[in-house]
Automatic annotation (TrEMBL):
Keywords: Cell membrane, Membrane, Transmembrane, Transmembrane helix, Transport. Its main location: membrane. InterPro entries: Bact_Polyamine_Transport, MetI-like, MetI-like_sf. GO terms for cellular component: plasma membrane. The keyword Transmembrane applies. It is found in: Cell membrane. It is a multi-pass membrane protein. PROSITE patterns: ABC_TM1 (PS50928). This is Binding--dependent transport system inner membrane component family protein.
Amino acid sequence: MYLPIFVLTFYSFNKSRYSAGWQGFTLEWYTKLFQDTRILSALQNSLIVAFAAVGVSAVIGTLMAVGLARFRFRGKSLYQGVSYLPLIIPDIAIAVSTLVFLAAVAIPLSIWTIVSAHVVFCLAYVALVVSTRLADLNPHLEEAALDLGATPVEAFIQVLLPELMPGILSGCLLAFVLSMDDFLIASFTAGSGATTLPMEIFSRIRTGVKPDINALSVILIIGSGLMAFIGEFLRIQGDKKRQG
């Protein structure tokens, strides 16, 4: 399964403009990549979308996970099921429904409509990871803080939030990678000039895959792998801290 990744990495150092044959080792494509204004602009848009969507999702997703775990209210099961629907609904369905909604309420497409659409699925991933972390915590920690005189807000900020932080960070990293990699939803909700990195890559590979796209793909793979490693490291450290 990993053979295509190795092949792609190999040809990103190929001196030939085409992948038909090996003509020598070069770093030229990586140099040109960082001088490509279109790629850099698309990368900037993707980073804006990812950071904004993950920031909003981290706050709302954490509060949602805590609320669902700590409180009982009418329609809780229905709300919980609806909240996690983006995890199983195909991206094309989310993209089309979001576009129809934006058109119905006459909201012009822009980079911020991409952000709002990305919040929909990032929120579900953050809430799921935080809920998993929350299920492993001792539910009596907050009660002990309240018995010692802390207010509910103080108990949440000083006791519960530090314990949830590894899960929050892991969920944010997962959501960040998914947002950076998204093409379908972004292409349906993007306005003029709001081109994200996956959209720019797709527009270029229609005429053939060039070595600079190979180089960009290698960088994205390394970046995604690094994010996954950091997320797993935070999870392990959180488990060790809780067990200790």
